[in-house]
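Supplementary notes for students who missed Thursday's class. We covered one full example, reproduced here. Read the sequence, then the structure, then the short commentary at the end.
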Amino acid sequence: MYDVVLLTLASERSAPGGCGSGGACCGGATKAETDPTSQTDPTGQTDPTGQTDSGQADSTGRTGSGQTTQASGDTEQCATERPRVPVLACADALIARGARVETVTARSDAEIDAVLARLDGPARPDGLTWPDLDGKTRLVVATASDGQLRAVLRRLVRRYAPAPSRRPADLPGNRTLPDLPPVAVLPLDPARGGTHRDLAAQLGLPRDPAAVAAAVLDGTARRLDLLRNDGGSVTLDGALLGAADDAGRPLHWRARVEVDDTILTNGDEPLLACAVGNGGGYATLDDVTLLTAPDPTDGQIEVAVAVPVVVRSALGRKRVRLEVRRARGRAVSVLPREGKVPYLDDGVEGELTRKRSWWIEPGAWAVWSI
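Structure (token representation):
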């Protein structure tokens, strides 16, 4: 039977920008991760600047063979209560099936890494840390947002991606990292499966805790594409670049957007939006279709830019229409021409001030599904 770890990231309510936003709390990226000049540690381990915590795990105990632990940390910045009801319900369903269950609340990258270390495979002759895809430990990530799931995947990439100078011969030629261990997703907000579709809803993953438990124990690993970027992070669903004023009107901005060898815009014309899609979270903007067929399993990125174009009618009257240009490929770069460009990446806010590149890692991560 499996050992199952139910991982919850600490509460978003006190963390600026929320979990996965790039802050030190709740699985946010360290400075080394957001600096494009940084490299993964040659050993594949956590960057030495990562946070550490000397506190002991607080075991509250549970019925059956399960155990609940809560990692200690800064309770003022990332306070959290006992595990939420869906987590407890999922744990009970797993225990009823004979699984050994541990629930962990992580408040820092170091505490996420301590959980992910349980997914390591046997020692390799080349000294690289590699995942064990046939191991008996399975991971469930309880997510209040796609940004939280992204935070965990970022740490998986950080752990297992080898430095370019240590690229092993058994790594696929179109990838920079090995197959990551599958994770199960336990959504903590059922409402996100409705009008605002989160990644779990887009992928058709179970939302009921008992169904998630069944996927962990009886399901299959569904492999998905992953976007990496030169800012040190990852994207699971997509990114939307652009901004609006206080009245909700989109603001114009300029950038060079290039997909493989296709230039969608050279930066001389105003843009309203740019969507970088792995999934369909940013396929539409209001009533405008940006992405037509984003697919997280096809090994390609779909990119679209929305350009306002002035045209004249037969009577000579001017009007503005929105031209959407699209391209697909393996990589995309966005180079802002002026100022800062706000964006959402897996629901997490940020600002682009210099060139950012995303590239596809086909089938790099996986989810447990029925």
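Commentary. Residues 12-81 have pLDDT under 50 and may be disordered. The longest strand covers residues 356-369. If anything here is unclear, bring it to office hours.
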